[in-house]
Specification:
Length: about 550
């Protein structure tokens, strides 16, 4: 390991380290099965599947479908997904990349002809082919129990879509803030603004169009989406808005089974989906941090936050330059993940001053749902599904109830950039499921929702547990920072003013957050000895962990 560059602290007073944990929940412990996600109704849907003999994948699909209904601003079958799955029968960890591709007409020249210098965050030019439902079907085909049909797994979602569900304050507020966006597109206005406005707290929202689509997909499966009515509705909506989609674009909508990429950290091994996802940034960051004695710092001290912030900025610089679809670009994966490269990057960090780093040269707001499930047979599923921005592109595919994502926003329109848009290419993706191994066995399935917050949250949560001995619920509740770009960093309430002052002295442009927005929503399940699961869920969302 490289020599850590530590600040001279001999004349500095001891930092204030009293940290307030705002949530104060207890972790959930269970033996037979457990589900953790961002909405209680969805968590219950997944648990019901486990209780009647379904496995972790079955329950994950049921919960994800329910979330499409009860958290429609965040997720749905018009979005993308990734998962990491521990198959306890084969004792193997596998990954699934369910991100969609740009349509064949999505050339750099075509986007520039629209007068665009960057891919927009809403509208039809922000949309790529939705990959989520293909991912759901592929996961069920390979790892589903076979005891539950797709129709049965979609039943809770259909129930809430037809009968309705009451809005929580968090969801109602996010919905209200997108009224202007939704009103710009007729299909979205009809479906998601009943009476011309967003539903309020406690009001019942129904989505019969989405219920009908789920019934159709339960009967027809993947074909009904990608070669049937759903794809046809997307193409029609695209044509009406001057977009690029043709039916042929859905022929190549195939998810990809992948081997997770990994790095070791103090006896643990963090596993991520390889690029086009940004999970690599978390791994690079851990390689840098491994050279610092973080456990010797006080949790929440300026020293603690400073080194994490600086390491995260270095990893983001590399993410922005190097992460792209590996089917279309040469990503120097081995070099970026090497401990030697981590050591080289570590030498750039000063203990007493913040920096705005450039990418290295390795050798060789936003919205999302995350859920995790563990079952009685020892299988564990780390699952993430997203529309990207709140209500994605804002475009609903006709009267299907299917809101389309805005993942095209992850492309560059800079000629020659590794992530430059191209036909059939996948954009840089922010959503990343996490999984931690220890001594060749599964230890934790976890994730942190929220755009750029995701790798930052993965690192902070894992460090909280490994370096500071927190349990999974404590690690979730601990105050977070968020690197914003340049020297800017936001810090949650609960961190003392003395710490913020010290960070400012080191050159950080620090802003204290007045709420939880932007700091993500975490869920996690740890496998304890004797087959016991410990689960935690985030108070920053409507989180719920439940088991039996």
């Amino acid at each position: 390991m490289g020599q850590a560059t530590l600040p001279d602290t001999k004349d500095r007073p001891e930092p204030t380290t009293k940290i307030t944990l705002p949530g104060g929940r207890s972790p959930v412990l269970a033996r037979e099965g457990v589900v953790a996600t961002s909405q209680p109704l969805a968590a219950t849907a997944g648990l019901q599947v486990l209780r009647v003999g379904g496995n972790a994948v079955d329950a994950a699909i049921a919960a994800a479908a329910a979330l499409n209904v009860v958290e429609p601003q965040s997720t749905g079958i018009g979005g993308d997904m990734f998962l990491i799955y521990w198959d306890n029968n084969e004792k193997r960890l596998v990954g699934l990349n369910g991100s969609g591709r740009a349509p064949q007409g999505a050339t750099l020249e075509r986007y520039r002809s629209e007068g665009l210098t960057a891919v927009p965050g809403e509208g039809i030019f922000a949309v790529t082919v939705p990959g989520a439902f293909d991912g759901w079907c592929s996961a069920l085909d390979r790892f589903g129990s076979g005891k539950k049909s797709l129709t049965e797994l979609l039943a809770p979602a259909i129930h809430y879509a037809e009968s309705g569900f009451p809005l929580t304050p968090i969801i109602a507020n996010a919905w209200r803030l997108q009224e202007k966006k939704l009103s710009s597109f007729e299909g979205s206005k009809r479906t998601y603004l009943p009476g011309g406005r967003a539903p309020r707290v406690g009001e019942i929202f129904r989505n019969p169009n989405l219920a009908a689509t789920f019934r159709l997909l339960g009967d027809g499966g993947r074909e009904a989406f990608y070669h049937g009515p759903v794809a046809e509705a997307i193409v029609r909506a695209s044509g009406e808005l001057g977009g690029l989609f043709e039916m042929e674009d859905f022929d190549g909508a195939r998810c990809t089974w992948v081997e997770p990429v990994r790095t070791g950290y103090r006896g643990y091994e963090l596993c991520q989906i390889p690029p086009n996802g940004q999970g690599l940034a978390a791994l690079i960051c851990l390689n840098i941090l491994e050279g610092y004695p973080l456990s010797e710092f006080s949790f929440g001290s300026a020293e603690h936050f400073h080194y994490l912030i600086e390491a995260m900025k270095l990893s983001f610089a590399d993410r922005n330059k190097y992460i792209a679809d590996m089917e279309h670009a040469e990503v120097p994966l081995e070099g970026l993940l090497s401990k030697t490269y981590g050591e080289e990057r570590r030498r750039l960090i000063s203990g007493d001053s913040a920096a705005d780093p450039a990418p290295g040269a390795p050798h060789g707001s936003s919205d999302t749902i995350y859920l995790t499930v563990a079952d009685r047979d020892g299988n564990m599923c780390s699952f993430i599904n997203s529309l990207f921005h709140h209500f994605g592109s804002g475009v609903t595919a006709g009267d299907t109830g299917v809101m389309l994502q805005s993942r095209g926003f992850g492309f560059s329109l800079e000629e020659g950039h590794l992530n430059c848009i191209a036909p059939g290419k996948r954009p840089l993706h922010t959503i990343i499921p996490g999984f931690v191994m220890r001594d060749g066995e599964p230890w934790m399935s976890y994730g942190v929702m929220g755009g750029d917050m995701q790798p930052q949250g993965h690192v902070q949560m894992l460090s909280n547990m490994v370096d500071f001995g927190m349990n999974v619920q404590e690690a979730i509740e601990a105050p977070r920072f968020r690197v914003l770009g340049g020297l800017e960093v936001a810090v949650e309430h609960g961190v003392p003013d003395e710490v913020l002052d010290d960070l400012t002295r080191r050159g950080h442009d620090v802003a204290r957050s007045g709420g939880y927005e932007g700091f993500g929503g975490a869920q996690g399940i740890v496998r304890l000895p004797e087959g016991v699961y410990m689960a935690g869920s985030d108070h920053r969302r409507d989180g719920c962990a439940t088991g039996y």
